[in-house]
Design brief:
This protein is mainly α and about 170 residues long. It is built from six helices and two strands. The chain starts with a helix and ends with a helix.
């Protein structure tokens, strides 16, 4: 039963993830540079880099390439790093989903031990910490592939990554 719940949860997450990646194929005419900008100066739906729920970074390479003036070689290197990062994050997220299911079961039990809750909650937040760390390291890997001028522009595009709300 636990395997079925975990698989179901993973399928839901995967469906959500594929919808996010499907946004990459949208027509560029949707991207607006002057209209509907937020306080940071960029349209929320069409930002080149988004940091979802402090866990996963989503990159729209078309917009990022346009905004930073990336070369094909840079896009290829960043894309390769992004694919590795995404696989790593999904593996950690899978473990979090399993622990959340375990926590739900503990909540339903009539008999429980405090250490069961502590252990499960500590594991969940440890995995979330790992995801955040992976995201920070990934951003630094992106910066390693950029020129100095591009780094300045990149930091202006995604200030929330450099001043995170923890």
């Amino acid at each position: 039963m636990l395997k079925k719940i975990i698989i179901f949860s993973l399928l839901i997450n995967l469906i959500g993830y594929t919808q996010l990646t499907a946004e990459d194929t949208k027509d560029m005419s949707v991207y607006q540079t002057d209209k509907h900008k937020n306080q940071n100066g960029y349209h929320n739906l069409n930002k080149p880099v988004l940091f979802y729920q402090g866990e996963m970074i989503k990159i729209d390479f078309k917009i990022l390439k346009e905004e930073l003036g990336l070369t094909k070689k840079q896009v290829k290197k960043i894309s390769s790093k992004y694919n590795k990062y995404t696989r790593k994050q999904l593996k950690v997220k899978e473990k979090i989903v399993g622990k959340k299911v375990k926590l739900s079961r503990l909540m339903m039990n009539g008999y429980y031990e405090n250490y069961d809750f502590d252990d499960t909650i500590n594991t969940i937040f440890s995995k979330k910490k790992k995801m955040f760390r992976n995201s920070v390291l990934f951003i630094k890997e992106i910066e390693d592939k950029l020129k100095k001028e591009q780094i300045v522009l990149f930091r202006q595009l995604v200030p929330e990554l450099y001043n995170p709300a923890l």
